[in-house]
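User: Please predict the structure of the protein below. I'd like the answer in structure-token form so I can feed it into my own downstream comparison script.

Assistant: Understood. Taking the following sequence of 126 residues as input:
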Amino acid sequence: MKIEHAAILYRDLEKAKRFFEDYFGGTAGKLYRNEKTGFSSYFLTFEDGCRLEIMNKPDAEASTIKNVLGFSHIAFSVGSKESVDVFTERLRNDGYFVMSEPRVTGDGYYESVIADCEGNTIEITV
């Protein structure tokens, strides 16, 4: 068994698509749009076959509540400690908020944590 895909709601679907294409090498499929409900989405496929659905619902509301049960983050492996450092710096230089600097975590991962184009948590790890 495998996870087929994960999905995240975004206010600005095109901006989110560019973020995942430009920084993580995602390839977006065709835009799906339900004219009746206003729902739209893209499936992004990554190098290893993993898929992420990015979605927009006109009636979705943003939550400002932190530390609640539910979705926490997505982690992308970039291959090495040096790549984590370089990638984190690239995102910082492009204006993204670095939530946690590159470091070895208590469970042994080398990672940094950034906020994506709408504040969702993304881990950059080896």
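That's the full token string. The radius of gyration is 15 Å.
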